[in-house]
Amino acid sequence: MHVSAPASDPALATLPVDKKRKLQHVHDGSFNALGEQGHRLAREEYLKEQGLRLKVQAKLDEKEMALHEMRNKQACRDKKQADELDVMKTQYRNDIQRYRQETFTAEIENRKLRTRLTQRDITINQLECENNDLRMELCNLKAINRNGHSQAPVTSSRGGPTCVPDKDPEVHSHKHYPHDQAPRENRMFGGFQASEHYAPGTGKIWPRKYGSGANWDLGLCRIAFDTDKTCIDSRCEFRHHLLTANERKYIQLLTPFGPNFLRHIDSCTYAKVMQSI
Ligand SMILES: [Zn+2]
């Protein structure tokens, strides 16, 4: 029986070289003896190895499939993350844009508010200036008004002051307030100009110190009334004799300076009396 050469069998073509050589030996030497059995063994071994190779290939395919799926899943995750990142970036840019817009709007409002506040302060300042001017004007008018209703007569059967000064210190100490009916022994000191030079600390007590003005200037010597000394300057042009009772009553009404002035000159007089004892 003729058997075709094993080398032409596709099963033998894929066998390793050492097994081919072994089978070739069988073919050359004892194939005839072994015959079909040898060929069957070779084919069986070939199929066995083919099966193993296919199993390995199947596992390899399976692994590659799993790897592909993993890569695919990873790609999906990467894409999802990239999409989420894009969404976050877009949201972030929108937030920044909105924040800038809100900041810009707030700054505009702030500037407008500051402008209004400044304008309000300017208006308040103008009103305060006008108010101050009106107060000054009112004070001047009260001071100039010689027959003002505030000068109510004082009832005194013993020759007390015949009027009370205006209750407003700014009025009764004003230089234009006339003190028309105020008690005075000598009118010469109204607008009096001294002919002598007086050193600092001497001369006349300014009427402002007892709450009066230029129109009721008693011409009081500063040494005689404002210190515990006696004026011995023979050239002194100012008054040295004590205040009358009516003058004291009137000065008492010239708040707030008048009462304080009386207390002060009384303490000076007391000191002089004590020195003379
Ligand atoms: Zn004097």
Task: Draw up the topology in text.
Elements: H1 10-13, H2 17-34, H3 36-144, H4 169-172, H5 222-226, H6 245-253, H7 257-276
Helix pairs in contact: 2-3, 6-7
Features:
about 280 residues, mainly alpha, about 60% helix
Describe this structure in words.
With 277 residues, this protein is an all-alpha fold. The protein has 2 domains: 6-92; 169-276, no CATH class. Helices cover 61% and strands 0% of the residues. The protein has 7 helices and no strands. The structure holds zinc ion. Zinc ion binds next to helix 5.
Secondary-structure-derived class? mainly alpha
Describe the largest sheet: none
What percentage of the residues does DSSP assign to strands (E)? under 5%
Low-pLDDT segments: 1-7, 149-157
Q: Note the run of SSEs as H and E.
A: HHHHHHH
Associated small molecules? zinc ion
Number of domains: 2
What is the helical fraction, as a range of percent?
55-70%
Find the count of extended strands (DSSP E, 2+ residues): 0
Compute the separation of the termini in Å: 181 Å
- Write down the Rg: 64 Å
Treating each run of at least 4 consecutive H or I residues as one helix, how many helices? 7
**Overall 3D form:** rod-shaped
Mean pLDDT: 84
